[in-house]
Design brief:
By secondary structure, the protein is mainly alpha-helical. The protein is built from 17 helices and no strands. It is globular.
Length: about 425
């Protein structure tokens, strides 16, 4: 009981600390959106957000690498296995290099098609998104390592450095007339700052001697199995998180896409407030599950705090959205208030799904979750062909699909619990 209370206090303490750091970064991110929305024309703002969303989609592998790194680092950090930790880092560097090369070849081959599909003004925007993605591959290893080692302060500081770097340099460069190019360069600078900072706390592991994964406790077969499950699950969630703007851009003009971007910026506050909860949850559940201890209380707390804050933020946006949009954006964005309810439904559902995904990945139970999310993503894409008379209709449909997906995963989790309980009872007989 004492151990459970201690774990609970540790979870709440780390979550609060990381929440403060993440919210500081989010404030900078929102200042970035607000300032750019006012410095740029609606059409240019839509172009910039399309590039940012494209980076988000291209960076699906980076988020996956972060999560995989965090899991295997956390597993080996239990006994301070420096050699094994270094072997994980070395392996993930090789994976990141291969992913970077594949992405570069694919993007360059499809350069014209991607530019045309998202109605971008220049192919250079796509190349810029690719360069940022390559930098994100390096960043993913540093952030995954810090998360796995439970260095939550340093992990949070990386987010702040990216946000501050992006904010400051984008303001300077956009004012100088660089427009979308200025935003691309600013994001790149912020990412590089975070990488350099993270490397400071990885020295003793990076330089602890050569190691081969197969010789130091990493089962490559199990690694591949887990990685594939993570790729499917996380890939779908990231695509859903960042692909909404791309989906809107595919069916509507720059003006409507710009309005949606402003509504999305506000609505996604509900999701971003839970980021700290999720980041703290993952390595702690990995550690407790590895020890054979119960993890249900951690999930309950994560759902309560993360989901609760998401619902509270969404409710606030619905009540005061017009006031907030009027204060933060110019009058030309006020029409976005009509889109906000649909965005909130979508984002709240996605928040609960994200918490659930991190928990299931931590206990290596992601097969069913991945299947449900693949079906959900395909359903949204297919249904969008018929349900796009308005942006509101499109996003309401997407939000309803995600709510159903979450309920299905809740049922799956209940099945897991029942199965484990039955197995334990049979073992005592």
């Amino acid at each position: 009981m004492k151990r459970m209370k201690k774990t609970g206090r540790e979870f709440e303490k780390n979550s609060f600390m990381l929440f403060v750091l993440m919210m500081s970064a989010n404030v900078c991110n929102y200042l970035f959106q607000i300032i750019m929305g006012n410095l740029m024309e609606v059409e240019q703002y839509a172009q910039a957000n399309t590039v940012v969303s494209l980076v988000g989609v291209l960076s699906i592998p980076t988020t996956i690498i972060t999560m995989i790194s965090a899991r295997y680092i956390a597993l080996n950090a239990l006994n301070e296995e420096k050699t094994r930790i270094r072997s994980v880092i070395s392996l993930m560097l090789k994976v990141a290099t291969c992913v970077g090369l594949i992405l570069a070849v694919v993007i360059l081959l499809l350069l014209n098609k991607i530019t045309s599909l998202f109605a971008l003004d220049s192919r250079c925007y796509v190349i810029g998104a690719l360069v940022i993605t390559v930098a994100n591959l390096c960043y993913s290893i540093t952030s995954g390592t810090l998360q796995g080692l439970k260095k939550f302060f340093q992990y949070g500081m990386q987010s702040i450095l990216i946000a501050i770097g992006k904010l400051i340099f984008s303001i300077v460069l956009v004012i100088l007339g660089w427009k979308v190019y200025g935003i691309i360069v600013a994001i790149l600078i912020g990412t590089l700052l975070a990488i350099v900072y993270g490397m400071r706390y990885m020295k003793k592991y990076v330089w602890s001697g050569k190691a081969r994964a197969a010789e130091h406790g990493i089962d490559l077969k199990e690694f591949m199995h887990y990685s594939i499950g993570t790729i499917v699950a996380q890939g779908c969630v990231i695509a859903l998180t960042n692909g909404d703007i791309l989906l809107v851009k595919a069916y509507f003009n720059d003006t409507e896409a710009g309005l949606y971007s402003s509504a999305s910026v506000l609505g996604k506050i509900a999701m971003y407030v839970s980021t700290a909860i999720v980041a703290t949850l993952f390595p702690m559940v990995v550690e407790k599950h590895q020890k054979g201890e119960s993890t249900e209380r951690l999930l309950g707390k994560a759902m309560l705090y993360g989901g609760g804050m998401a619902v509270a933020c969404a409710s606030g946006m619905l009540l005061f959205g017009k006031l907030v949009i009027g204060m933060l954006f110019a009058e030309r964005y006020l029409q976005a208030i009509n889109i906000l309810p649909a965005v909130c439904i979508y984002v709240v559902a996605l928040t609960f799904i994200t918490v659930m995904m991190n928990y299931l990945l931590a206990i290596d139970r992601v097969k069913v979750f991945g299947t449900v999310m693949v079906v959900s993503l395909v359903t949204i894409i297919v249904f969008s062909v018929w349900f796009h008379e308005s942006v509101t209709q499109l996003m309401t449909m997407a939000g309803c699909v995600l709510l159903i997906a979450f309920l299905l995963n809740v049922l799956y989790l209940q099945y897991i619990r029942h199965r484990v309980k039955t197995k334990n009872e049979e073992g005592r007989v």
